[in-house]
């Protein structure tokens, strides 16, 4: 019953097989191999973006930080939600790789920015003096850190505000597959068709060992990115082992099947928590569940080995209700969901 993260489970068997298969024989290094070429083309097809530049890196932090550095100068302002991974969980990597760009966190319910909040923030930044730095980038997270999703119209509205003000738009898609699955839409609806400029398409949280795709929908935005990626140590000499993971997820729509499984498990958890007398702290729209449980239910679940994180600023007092975060993955078992719900019932 491990709901601590979608990082805790292993590698999907098809991804493991792809790694074993590409281990035979010799291939070109640093991405000059047929597997990398096929994987790049696969993600252009998924995103309906035939001109896009696709590159692979090993970590989500690396992907986000390098894209932020690519699209913002060192004196740039990067607008994001206050809960965004680039702001809270990446050890200032975007600032480091951009040599000083300033993250500007903004509020919003359930991890989402609103057009009004973003527009006001951009106007304030634009109206500022030389001391403020230059508006450069808007970073959206989809699915968000609160397990909610931006639909296509919401992404398009935020992108329009950013572009009208001369900013580009980055999407942190560590859980992009879960957002697409949750909305039952096309990947392009949330990205290229909604005027997103760059996407970090997550694989690690969705069955890969460690692989993410960086996608620039306008090739001009990718100018020099290969040098930046190399300089940052994110080009593998045996690059095919990164690409093979993402290709395995792409083939046959595996990436979407795995995300649907994770989302379905989260939906079951959310519904079961409500039936057991708990409450939900955020809507369940992807593969994360934020809930408040009675202390006795929390204690019973923990005593039987359930793993999850507390999600509140202070440790609960004895007998006090507890707010928690549960995350499901491609490998979450139905019996673990059932057992957890029986424990808290």
**Overall pLDDT score:** 96
Spatial order of strands in the largest sheet: 1-7-6-5-4-2-3
CATH superfamily of the largest domain: Type I PLP-dependent aspartate aminotransferase-like (Major domain)
Tally of separate domains = 2
- The separation of the N and C termini measures 16 Å
How is the secondary structure organized here?
Layout (H helix, E strand, L loop, with lengths): L12 H9 L12 H13 L6 E5 L2 H12 L4 E6 L3 H4 L4 H5 L4 E5 L8 H13 L6 E8 L10 H13 L3 E6 L2 H8 L14 E5 L9 E5 L8 H7 L8 H11 L3 H22 L3 E2 L7 E6 L1 H9 L5 E2 L11 E6 L6 H11 L1
Parallel strand pairs: 2-3, 2-4, 4-5, 5-6
Antiparallel strand pairs: 1-7, 6-7, 8-9, 9-11, 10-11
Molecular structure report:
- This protein has 345 residues and is α/β, with parallel strands linked by helices.
- It folds into 2 domains: 13-254, Type I PLP-dependent aspartate aminotransferase-like (Major domain) (Aspartate Aminotransferase, domain 2, 3-Layer(aba) Sandwich), CATH 3.40.640.10; 258-344, Aspartate Aminotransferase, domain 1.
- It has helices at residues 13-21, 34-46, 60-71, 85-88, 93-97, 115-127, 152-164, 176-183, 225-231, 240-250, 254-275, 295-303, 334-344; strands at 53-57, 76-81, 102-106, 134-141, 168-173, 198-202, 212-216, 279-280, 288-293, 309-310, 322-327.
- Strands 1-7-6-5-4-2-3 form a 7-stranded mixed sheet, sandwiched between helices. The chain has a 4-stranded antiparallel sheet with strand order 8-9-11-10.
- A hairpin with a 7-residue loop joins β8 (279-280) and β9.
- It is globular.
- The two termini are 16 Å apart.
- The mean pLDDT is 96.
């Amino acid at each position: 019953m491990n709901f601590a993260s979608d990082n805790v489970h292993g590698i999907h068997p098809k991804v493991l097989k792809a790694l074993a298969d590409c281990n035979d024989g010799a291939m070109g290094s640093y991405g000059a191999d047929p597997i990398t070429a096929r994987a790049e083309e696969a993600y252009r097809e998924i995103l309906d973006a035939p001109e896009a530049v696709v590159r692979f890196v090993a970590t989500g932090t690396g992907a986000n930080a390098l894209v932020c550095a690519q699209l913002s100068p060192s004196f740039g302002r990067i607008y994001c939600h206050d809960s965004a991974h680039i702001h809270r969980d990446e050890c200032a990597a975007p600032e480091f790789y951009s040599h000083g760009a300033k993250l500007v966190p903004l509020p919003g319910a359930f991890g989402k920015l609103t057009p009004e909040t973003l527009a006001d923030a951009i106007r304030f930044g634009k109206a500022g003096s030389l001391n403020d730095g230059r508006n450069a980038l808007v970073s959206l997270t989809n699915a968000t850190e609160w397990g909610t999703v931006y639909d296509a119209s919401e992404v398009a509205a935020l992108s329009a505000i950013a572009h009208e003000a001369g900013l580009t738009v980055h999407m942190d898609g560590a859980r992009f597959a879960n957002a697409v699955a949750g909305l039952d839409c096309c990947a392009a609806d949330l990205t290229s068709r909604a005027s997103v400029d760059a996407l970090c398409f997550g694989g690690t949280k969705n069955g890969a060992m460690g692989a993410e795709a960086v996608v620039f929908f306008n090739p001009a935005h990718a100018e020099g990115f290969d040098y930046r990626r190399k300089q940052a140590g994110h080009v593998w000499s045996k690059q095919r082992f990164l690409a093979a993971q993402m290709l395995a997820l792409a083939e046959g729509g595996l990436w979407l099947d795995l995300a649907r499984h994770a989302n379905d498990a989260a939906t079951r958890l959310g519904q079961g928590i409500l039936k057991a007398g708990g409450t939900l702290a955020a809507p369940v729209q992807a593969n994360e569940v934020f809930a408040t449980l009675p202390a006795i239910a929390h204690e019973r679940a923990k005593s039987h080995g359930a793993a999850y994180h507390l999600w509140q600023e202070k440790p609960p007092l004895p007998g006090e209700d507890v707010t928690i975060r549960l995350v499901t993955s491609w490998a979450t078992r139905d019996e673990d969901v059932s057992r957890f719900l029986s424990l808290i019932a």
